[in-house]
Amino acid sequence: MAVHLSYRSGGKEALVPASGGSLPRPYSGGTSRRYITLKEGDTRPVATTTSASNSQISAAGRFAGLDPEQLIRAFRIMHTSRRLDDREVTLKRQNRIFFQISGAGHEAVQVAAGMALRSGRDWFYLYYRDRALCLTLGVTPREMLQQAVGAAEDPASGGRQMPSHWGHRDRHIVSGSSPTGTQYAQAVGCAEASRYLDSKSEEITLVTSGEGATSEGEFWEALNIACLKRLPVIFLVEDNGYAISVPVEVQTAGGNVAALVSGFPDLHRQDVDGTDFLASYVAMKEAEAWCRGGHGPALVRARVTRPYSHSLSDDERMYKTPAERQEEAERDPVLRFPQFLIAEGVIDRHMLQRIAHEVDEEVNAATHEALHDVPPAPETALRHLYSETVDPTSEAFSTEPDFQGTPMTMVDLLNATMREEMRRDPNVVVFGQDVADCSREANLREVKGKGGVFKVTAGLQTEFGGRRAFNTPIAEAAIAGRAIGMATRGLKPVAEIQFFDYIWPAMMQLRDELATMRWRSNGSFSCPAVIRVPIGGYLNGGAIYHSQCGEVAFTHIPGLRVAMPSNALDACGLLRTAIRCDDPVLFLEHKRLYREPYNRSPHPGDEFLIPFGRAKVVKTGHSLTVVTYGALVQKAMLAATQVEKRNPRVSVEILDLRTLAPYDWEAIRTSVEKTSRVIIAHEDTLSFGYGAEIAARIAGELFDRLDAPVGRVGALDTWVGYHPQLEAAILPQTENLAAEMDRLLGY
User: Fold this and answer.
1) pLDDT digit string (tens) for 88-131?
2) Which residues are catalytic?
């Protein structure tokens, strides 16, 4: 009697005989020409090879230190993973789920990785093929199928993400996303947090991807930082030879990322046959020992297969030849590993039959339960977009100032606020390009120190040390990604992007990661980081790459708070709120306002807070409302003075929004209902600008209260020029505001 395990393979059925049959590839070692042939009752040892992997296995014992029970568990997980993939394929074709992407061909190295590390103690940043790894860490088939059907009780996302976007709070599997490579920078931040929170911690952070994601900049940025700081991060690259349809030789110079990274110091490298479970286990244990021993990061390149198409939206037959697909099928780990176990006498055909039956029963039961699970209720769509426990718009963040000392600039009060919050909370860390006083700390005995290009962070390193205030490489995506990883672990990173004009490399991290983490994980994870960014023009010579605005690109992002103060006092109160609140905050600091004499303030005390979404009437009036923020607040004041001097019968009310997301609609409504005329003014380009949203809402909700059209003032729809005369023509000036005030008051 023969028992067969069947799996889909390129649309066909691949059979694994429980006894009899042959395996046309060596199980361990890629260089040997010896083959395993199994016959009825055959229990001979597996053929050995002269490859490095087999030498390692021999040194570790017959089964790399694993006992038969562990080997059987490994097979059970691999088989379960494949059966779940196959079940989801069937469900998708029946239109009972909505997407499917498989981990087929990757199972051996994934189970090896999961068995080498510690679920619930180490940390995991996984990618969409890591089904078997998640099963090894303790995620159940039921939980996986809850993802597939989009169930409300899905522990990964509550039905908010596509299947195979793994996340599990108890297992320390941080919520994953679709963008490729972003997880690398976050994993580095997570590892930094482990070391920061406990200098003796033995925690390891595992981050995985396919070989295609190693072309992303974050992979190289993260690897650089991990080596610079000798962080305990394992980079597991599951190389199946294809990034959808792009073969590895087109993706990676030389076709081997492990060879490309050979020059990185303190990096332990392994290149292993990822379809060979024992070789993979040895490689992962060596990487684990290297990292846990404090020697630095490790990179394991595992050569795996992809017997199914990239996803059910792809057809690999369009770009893989039949011969190539057949060669992959012969290396399939779920076909090879059970034959190895039979050959070694670890299991027999009766046990294989029993395991296969038990797995099928478990998958069937999990499928039945998941298909009857309740989907997420429509009224939960906005749940977990922001923190439910800390509300930065509440009265808890409204305190009165206790002024002390002489007036201080915005730079001085921002610096003082960070200093006070770092004293108050030991988990506040400040970093970015040039933010430290001097990375070579010994030199501080001889030099003054930099402390930021605008001196906003001056002295923080001197007081708190390089552990809490430090420089980073010029890598904006990595700065944001590290902040996300740190914040997810409970630190409060205050990271700086040196100029708003250079924020765009970090856009994927900010939009698709930072702002989505709480919502996409259904509240299981959050990353309340503060990202400080100098912004704006009106400083001669800034030109295209040091003077732009663009805040509207970020106010359009759900889950992200955006603040932009116009004066020193507000900067102090809003930054303190940003640091103490539980949401991610983009804190925009206008460069021109850093040292203006008119906007200074005495120190308001180290408990001074301003709620988000609370505008300030900086000038009262009854004839016209100006809604503005940032550098245009003062220009609006000057314009109003000119208009009122020419026409004493009118008065202009000026509303400083202070925060752009959320914004204070009630304050806008109250003012517009009083004045019946309104201008929205901002420094950014006029077309598609921030003011368009407010103008549309005023027109939609307050149309019957208006006595004139809604006015808007903004920059010309072009870039900021270098010459002062050109810059002045492009950016909105006092006379532009005054002219628009006159126009609306004339109705």
Assistant:
1) 999 999 999 999 999 999 999 999 999 999 999 999 999 999 99
2) 546
